Amino acid sequence: MLVIYGPTQTGKTSLAINLARKYNGELVSADSRQVYKGLDIGSGKVDFSDTVEKYAGYWIVNGVRINGFDLADPGQQFSAADFLEFAKSSISRIIDKKKLPIIVGGTGFYIKALFEGIDSIGVPSDPELRRKLEKLSTDALYQKLFKLSKNRTESMNESDKANPRRLIRAIEIAIHKKDQGSEIKDESNSQFPFRLETRSRRAIPNSQYLFLGLTAPNEFLFKKADRWLAERIDHGLINEVRDLLENGVDYNWLENLGLEYRWITKYLLDKNSYEESLLRLKGDIHSFVRRQKTWFPKFKNIKLFDISSENFGKSLEKTVSLWYTKENERRKNFA
């Protein structure tokens, strides 16, 4: 199994598709926004030059199946536990077909959960509690979580602290753990509270894997991200958000998604000018890139490749080829 992680605009999906075509693989998307229908341009599912066929739960892109697109309707709750269940079934199905599973995405928590599990598994939603919490301000939610779990609250990044949906889920889990008499273990810079879990709660089966990390200096990635944003705007990003609003998607839900959906929604609702929204969006994307890079030290056995390096492609291809050859030999020996 291959795992590919990296910040936005490192070419993860294009690389994964090329490797899938070479090694008879299928992709499993590990991206918390690409699971939603209609969030295509803003979440950057594919390049505009790609050949795409869309099906329920997966797309065929340039002849390669990508699992994990369009799993949920906009506004619907899709948790990390839901992702793990989907990833488990997808990986098993791909392996049964004698194909290579390739996990690819930029949601660090999803990747981490594949290996270690999450403590929100088994914690049910509490509709009554959520209705009460939804009436509170973001600051009040933060203070409530702080009283329940000071360490967890202080470990959250600024985006999570300002996100009512994530604060409510964190409170829900904290209360459940307290009622069960369980100790809450925190991890910094995560999108959800989690802790190390038993092997049965992981999605990755007992198999050999190669973990690739794509990175580059911040300024290099910032410039790429700015160009990609301009290209997406030219290809209808604003109309995509407008269509979501006109189809009844809650603007609060869109704003809570952050990044493109937050700032374009604010612009369309006349909360900000176009210029201000664009400026704030670029700043948030740059901050997001920095946060994505903080996940690298959390991953064991990850092999980093600098995409700004002239020879990174040859080095990466050699690494994958050697691993694939050794893995095939190992399987033959145990067959």
Automatic annotation (TrEMBL):
The record marks T107, R130 as: Interaction with substrate tRNA. Residues 31-34 are annotated as: Interaction with substrate tRNA. Its EC number is 2.5.1.75. Gene3D superfamilies: 1.10.20.140, P-loop containing nucleotide triphosphate hydrolases. SUPFAM superfamilies: P-loop containing nucleoside triphosphate hydrolases. NCBIfam families: miaA. This is tRNA dimethylallyltransferase. It comes from Candidatus Curtissbacteria bacterium RIFCSPHIGHO2_02_FULL_42_15.
